Amino acid sequence: MTSTAYQTSPIPAAAGIGLRFVHHEVVTATRLAVPWFEVHAENYFGHGKLRHILESVRRDYPLSLHGVGLSLGSADGLDRQHLERLSALARAIEPGLISEHLSWSVTGGQYLADLLPLPMTEEALDLVCRHVQQVQDALQRPILIENPSTYLQLAHSTLPEWVFLSELAARTGCGILCDVNNIFVSASNHGWDPRQYLAGLPRAAIGEFHLAGHAERTLADGSLVRIDDHGSRVAPAVWALYEQALERFGPRPTLIEWDSAIPEFDVLLDEAALAARRLHASERASHVHAA
Amino acid sequence: MSTLLEWQRDFARALLGGAPAAAGAGLDITRDPAVRLAIYRNNCLSNLVRALTLNFPAVRHLVGSEFFAAAAQEFISQYPPASACLDDYGQALALFLTHFPPADSLSYLPDVARLEWAVSRALHAPRAAGLEVSRLAALEPQAMAEVRFVPQPAISLLRLDTPADAIWRAVLDQDDAAMAGLDLTDGPVHVLIERSQDGVEVRRLTRAAWRLMQRLCAGEPLHEVLASRGELAGDQINAWLADHLAHARFIDIVSLTGERST
C-alpha cells in the first residue's frame, strides 16, 4: 500500500453539507465548523484546480464521495473506465464513505444524465447485486446504495423498493444510504406508506441519511407530483420523517444537499443545524435506552 | 415483458424521442407515461445543458441563454454524451455550430467553441513538473539536435480563422469597450492554451513560432524542426525555446536512439 497523506477520518454521525462549486471559495478561505463534507465524485475526476480544491478540503475535513454516474442498474454492464476513475479518486482522497444510487443512466453507449428508475424485478436485483460486488471488489471496501426519488412505477415490478434494497444489502454486504426526502417524494408519488418503507429497511445496514428540499408540480389531470430538485429547504413533513428514521435506526451521518438555486452557505449551515439538533436528541434518547 | 436490456433501450428511445403522445407506450408504466417520462426528459436535458454551459461559458454569453439552450438541445440529440463524466462532454460542439443554420451569421462562434474546449481540457488535465534545463545542458550537441520533447498534457495549439481569443477574453471580462473595438477580419490567429499556477492562459503566438511549437509538440525531433524554421532567426529560436522551458511547457525529452520520426 502507498503511504497516506491523510489521517484516517471516518464520517461522524453528525450533520454534514454537500459541497458544490459555488461554495469552494468560502469553504477554503474560512475554515468553517462543518463536521464533514460530501461531493459528487464525477466532478473531481479531472486533475486540475478542482482536484486541488478537493485535496485541500480533504486535509481539513472528513469527506464522503457520492457517485452519480456509475449506472449500477445498466443491463449493458458497468463502464470499466468510469469505475477505474472512481477508484483512482478514492485512492487519492481516501474518503470516509463512498456511495452510489439504485438507478441506471447508461444504455447503448449513451449517458442519459438522470437517475432513471429500475423495474423492481428479480432480474434487476441479480444485476445490481453483481455490479455492487464488482464495485466493492474494485474499491476494496463496502459502499452505500441510495434509494432514488421516482416519478413512475412499472407494472412488471414484483418487489417493493425497500425489499429490493434490503435484499441487495443482505446479498452484497453493502450499506444503505437512506435518503429521507426521496422516501417521502416516492411514497407521495406512488401512494406508499413512508413508515412502512422505513420499517422494511434493515437497521444495521443504514450508513447515512440524506436530506434535501423538493418541488411540487400539479399535472394536467390535477394530480400532484413531487420532484426531487434539491432546490429549497427541507420540507416540514420530511423533517418529521427524519425524526422517525432516527428513532428507528439511531444517529447516523446526515447530509444536507442543495443543487438548484443554491443559496448562500449560511443557509446550508442553518439547515445542518436543524439536522444536528435532531441528531443530538436521538443520541440522548439512545443513551437513555442503553441506560 | 422484454428483458431489462431491451426495456432500457426502449426507455432511452422514448426519453429522447420527439413523439410525446406515443412516448412511453410499451414501457409498462402504470399511469400517464408521457407526462411522467417528460419529468425525466426535462431533468436529463437540463443537466446536460448545464454541463455544456459550464464548459462553454463564452459561447453561451455570446448567443444568450435562450439561444444556447435551444442549440444545446439540438446538439445533445445529435451528439449525446457517452459517459457521466461531463467535463469530457462537448468536443463536437464547434463542429456542430459550423453546420447549425441559426448561427450562420456568427462566423466566429465555432472558433470560440474550439477555444473553450481547449480551455476546458487545460483546466482538467494533469500538470506535471517541467523539464529540468540541466537535462538538456548535459546532452552532447548531436544528441541535443535529435531530441524530441514531450509537452504538458494541458497544452493545446489552435489556429483560429477569427480573433476568437480576443472575443473570448472580452466576453469573460465583460469588457464592452474591447468587444466594440474588435476587428472580426483580424485573423487568422495562432494561440497556445495552457494551465498556469492560477488558471488557464491563452497566448497569441506568431505564425512561425506557433508552427514550430506545433511540430515540437507533435514529436518531431528538434533538428528537423530547426532545419525548416522559416523566417525565424537563430537568436529568436533561442529566445523562443528558453521561453517554453521557463514556462515548463515540456515535461520530458525522449532521445531518438536511431528511430526517425516522420
Q: How many helical elements of chain B? A: 13
Question: Which residues of chain B form runs of ≥5 with pLDDT under 50?
Answer: 258-262
Q: What proportion of the residues of chain B form beta strands (DSSP E)?
A: 5-15%
Radius of gyration of chain B: 24 Å
Question: What radius of gyration of chain A results from the CA coordinates?
Answer: 18 Å
Q: Note the run of SSEs of chain A as H and E.
A: EHEHEHEEEHEHEHHEEEHEH
Hey, which two chains have the biggest interface? Answer: A-B, 49 and 46 residues
Number of domains of chain A: 1
Shape category of chain A: globular
Q: Oligomeric form of this entry?
A: heterodimer
| Distance, first to last CA of chain B | 57 Å
In CATH terms, the superfamily of chain A is Divalent-metal-dependent TIM barrel enzymes
Number of helices of chain A: 9
Specify the CATH class of chain A: Alpha Beta
What share of residues are in beta strands of chain A? 15-25%
Brief summary of the model shown:
Chain A has 291 residues and is of the alpha/beta class. Helix content of chain A is 41%, strand content 19%. Chain A has one domain (15-290): TIM Barrel (Alpha-Beta Barrel), CATH 3.20.20.
Written account of the structure:
The complex is a heterodimer of chains A (291) and B (262). By secondary structure, chain A is α/β, with parallel strands linked by helices. Chain A has a single domain (15-290), classed as Divalent-metal-dependent TIM barrel enzymes (TIM Barrel, Alpha-Beta Barrel), CATH 3.20.20.150. Chain A has 9 helices and 12 strands. Chain A has helices at residues 24-29, 49-60, 80-93, 122-139, 161-172, 180-190, 194-200, 236-249, 265-290; strands at 15-18, 37-40, 63-66, 97-101, 104-107, 110-116, 144-146, 175-179, 206-212, 215-218, 224-227, 254-257. In chain A, a hairpin with a 2-residue loop joins strand 5 (104-107) and strand 6. In chain A, helix 7 packs parallel to helix 8 and helix 8 packs parallel to helix 9 (265-290). The longest helix of chain A is centred in the C-terminal third of the chain and has 26 residues, at 265-290. Chain B folds into 2 domains: 1-106, no CATH class; 114-262. In chain B, 51% of the residues lie in helices and 10% in strands. Chain B contains 13 helices and 5 strands. In chain B, the strands form 2 sheets. Chain B has a 3-stranded antiparallel β-sheet with strand order 2-3-4. Chain B has a two-stranded antiparallel sheet with strand order 1-5. Chain B starts with a helix and ends in an 8-residue tail after the last strand. At the A-B interface, helix 3, strand 5, strand 6 and helix 4 of A face helix 1, helix 2 and helix 6 of B.
